[in-house]
Design brief:
There is one protein chain. The chain is mostly helical. It is 50% helix and 10% strand. It is built from 13 helices and six strands. The strands form two sheets. A three-stranded antiparallel β-sheet has the order 1-3-2. It is globular and about 50 Å long.
């Protein structure tokens, strides 16, 4: 019996994902999705897809999850999708097609050297500005190397570092870009500026208005969640009531 083909328009009507290429196709179909699902947060997840749309009630670290963890790093390293802590500060994938829309929506199409302007405008904290500056000057860096460069070596400094890293990823300034074995323990995440990792997306974002970006994102979300009410969409993307109504009506 031939396996059921991946359906580009109904991402959960397919056999379990078994390769990174299939995972990349799923992300492209979804437009944007979580790594793992979040309770009461209505967004697709790669975990559900790797389980064939029927994840077990109790989470266990099994072969599927081990693959998923590897693919997360591989897809980021190969630039097949943007990966970082975006929605709710949790692991999120943005497809290459939708990354420009999210950048335009956040009005964050910034060059590597633009950290002083954003900080002066109050858009980044002191810690986030220091990390942005370090990545701008030194290129992609692994976690411990980046902490050392920004003088966040202490335990308290690590807390500030983690908070600033989430801030920069929620702003789409920084992207997860694979891993690096810095110690004998778990491999460290490697990070790069989105503007350098995805220059084409940055250029494309400059041609998209925030209004058009929100409309495209809303259309993709409603494609998978038809009938979703405006308050849900507003909460999910952090839009005002007026922005949501305009985006969903276009």
């Amino acid at each position: 019996m031939r396996p059921k083909k991946f359906n580009e328009h109904k991402p959960f009507e397919h056999r379990k994902l078994t390769t990174p290429a299939e995972a990349a196709r799923f992300i492209r179909s979804a437009g944007f999705c979580m790594l793992f699902p979040i309770k009461n947060f209505p967004l697709l997840s790669l975990y559900e897809a790797i389980k064939g749309g029927r994840p077990p009630r109790k989470f266990t670290w099994d072969h599927d999850v081990e693959n998923l963890w590897k693919w997360k790093d591989l897809l980021g390293k190969q630039r097949r999708a943007w990966y970082g802590k975006y929605f709710r500060g949790r692991g999120t994938f943005l497809s290459l097609e939708f990354l420009p829309h999210f950048l335009a929506m956040r009005e964050i199409a910034a060059a590597p050297e633009d950290f002083p302007q954003f900080h002066a405008a109050g858009k980044t904290s002191n810690e986030a500005c220091a990390i942005w500056e370090a990545l701008s000057k030194h290129g992609p860096m692994a976690t411990l190397e980046l902490r050392h460069a920004c003088k966040f070596d202490s335990k308290r400094g690590n807390v500030r570092f983690k908070r600033a890293m989430v801030e920069l990823q929620c702003l789409l300034v920084v992207v997860h870009s694979g891993i690096e074995q810095e110690t004998a323990a778990w491999a460290s995440g490697r990070f790069e500026l989105t503007s350098r990792a995805f220059p084409e997306a940055m250029r494309a974002a400059l041609e998209i208005s925030p209004e058009a970006a929100r409309a495209a994102i809303a259309a993709k979300y409603l494609e998978w969640h038809p009938g979703a009410e405006s308050p849900r969409v507003a909460r999910l993307f952090g839009w005002s009531k007026q922005e949501t109504v305009a985006a969903c009506s276009r």
